[in-house]
Design a protein that fits this description.
The complex is a heterodimer of chains A (180) and B (200).
Chain A: H1 2-68, H2 74-95, H3 99-113, H4 116-170
Helix pairs in contact in A: 1-2, 1-3, 1-4, 2-3
Chain B: H1 3-29, E1 39-45, E2 57-58, E3 63-74, E4 79-89, E5 109-115, E6 120-135, E7 138-146, E8 149-160, E9 165-178, E10 183-197
Parallel strand pairs in B: 2-10
Antiparallel strand pairs in B: 1-3, 3-6, 4-5, 4-9, 6-7, 7-8, 8-9, 9-10
Classes of the chains: A mainly alpha (180), B mainly beta (200).
């Protein structure tokens, strides 16, 4: 009887220990999982912000190149501003620990600026072609004007010279008295 | 006027006309430096869009503003700016304009935007001191809300016996994106308002 009781006691205590261990494990694992999840969301937010920031930087570089080539980039700047506003909100949300919002706004920013680089490159190419055509036309105009000026000057000078000589030949000499 | 003098006048006139005719092409090929100083403006206006009426005596829970922060671009090309909003007490450092160093304090709020040359940008900023406590000669501000975003600040300020108040400062720093370094750099401009924390 005693042995049986002892075995029962042992059985109950091992059951209790198992329950305690299970509860402890469950608690620790939930804490661990929650902590890991929180860290994971923070990392995802930072990564999303970095991607958005890179996309904005690349788009801005492309817009600057297009502007340098003489393209009208006001429309692209408006689009970039929408992205920049979303990026600001992502940073602010990240700073206050609202990582879900940070991810949302960073992704929004990425989507908003995604096509800008291609648009800017197209605009730059068009601006370069326009610029070359304008340069060609202006150069042609300048060369034509210079040729006209040279020819006009040459013939004008010849005409003026002959007229000058003709007038000089028609002049009658006058004798001036020296009364002094 | 004899013939030689006439020849000189003809030659000078022709050369001048050639220069005028060639100028458009030359100006397209050779880059001429654009004159004038390149700079950015940063301003802060009160609720009536004037440089007056800024919030000064503030207490916890009251909505202040909007005040208007603005930037003007005169840099000769489109620029990428960020305005950082920071909050400090009297002992914490401001930006150092002589060595172009920003305040080492972490920004709370920020505004990023692009501006074409010659254009301006302006935005309203409202703020609420979320929680302020007073204990003897000290006051504590634990949170401030800027444009509906609450930030934990945990700042204290001692009683300023000369100015009679507990002073804090809300200030705005202007940073400019450097394409070469691919980072924002302090643009050596900041504006701010002093706030006297009062009991409700």
């Amino acid at each position: 009887m005693k042995k049986r009781k002892r075995r029962e006691v042992n059985g109950v205590s091992s059951l209790k220990a198992a329950v305690v261990l299970f509860v402890l494990f469950a608690f620790m694992s939930s804490t661990f999982v929650l902590g890991t999840m929180a860290l994971g969301v923070e990392d995802v937010a930072l990564s999303a912000i970095e991607s958005a920031e890179l996309a904005v930087d690349l788009a801005y570089d492309a817009v600057l190149e297009a502007e340098g080539a003489g393209a009208n980039v006001s429309g692209l700047l408006n689009e970039l501003n929408d992205g920049a506003e979303a990026l600001s909100k992502a940073y602010v949300s990240n700073r206050i620990g609202d990582f879900d919002d940070a991810i949302y706004f960073a992704d929004l920013c990425y989507d908003l600026v995604a096509g800008i680089e291609a648009e800017a490159n197209e605009l730059r190419e068009v601006a370069v072609i326009d610029g070359n055509q304008r340069l060609l036309l202006t150069s042609f105009g300048s060369v034509l004007a210079v040729v006209c000026i040279c020819c006009g000057g040459f013939f004008g000078w010849r005409f003026f010279k002959s007229r000058y000589h003709r007038r000089a030949l028609k002049m009658k000499p006058e004798v001036a008295s020296n009364e002094s | 006027m004899n013939l030689e003098e006439c020849k000189s006048v003809f030659a000078v006139t022709a050369l001048s006309l050639i220069l005028v005719a060639a100028f458009p092409t030359v100006s397209m090929v050779l880059p001429f430096p654009s004159g004038g100083e390149r700079f950015s403006e940063l301003w802060l206006l009160g609720p009536d869009h004037m440089a007056e009426g800024y919030p000064f005596n503030v207490s916890a829970g009251e909505v202040h503003g909007p005040i208007y922060v603005g930037v003007g671009n005169h840099m000769g090309s489109s620029e990428y700016y960020v305005v950082y909003v920071k909050f400090r007490n009297q002992t914490q450092p401001l930006p150092n304009a002589t060595v172009s160093e920003p305040s080492p304090l972490s920004p709370l709020y920020e505004f990023q935007f692009f501006l074409a040359d010659g254009e301006t940008w302006e935005t309203p900023v409202s703020f609420i001191v979320e929680d302020a406590e007073f204990e003897g000669n000290s006051s504590f501000v634990t949170g401030i809300s800027i444009n509906d975003h609450v930030f934990v600040v945990d700042l204290f300020s001692s009683w300023d016996s000369e100015q009679n108040g507990f002073y804090y400062q809300l200030f705005f720093e202007l940073w400019l994106y450097s394409g070469d370094l691919q980072v924002f750099q302090f643009h050596n401009r900041f504006v701010g308002i002093w706030l006297n924390m009062t009991r409700t």
